[in-house]
Write a structure and sequence with these properties.
The chain is an all-alpha fold. About 60% of the residues lie in helices and about 0% in strands.
Amino acid sequence: MRKSPDATDRYVGSRVRMRRLMLGMSQTELAQAVGVTFQQVQKYEKGTNRVSASRLQQMSHVMGVPIPFFFDGSLGRSTPSKATATASDPSYISEFLATKDGLSLVKAFMRIKDRNIRLPIVRLVEQIAGLEK
């Protein structure tokens, strides 16, 4: 019988993925930098395999973040399912930023300096999201 990934392992993996995408780094590049295969990085990012303390330290060095970055927003909380996550929940934001689309959207949106342009975009996305309920 297969054990399902632990919520903390999934969360840490999503933070690894988010940071890797922020840096524009491939799974292969990260794998080579920390001495594992890209398949192992995939397993870390999905939470299928737990990241050891020494490997997490290597990743934090390679990706230029402190080790607590990988746990921000997860400690002392249970991770909600995607179905019950809300926009105010930090794990919801982390899951979004751990996707290519989410990260691209945030980067592009932040380049729009004029609030009068950003606000209608937010309203449009809210309306579209409301239609999909």
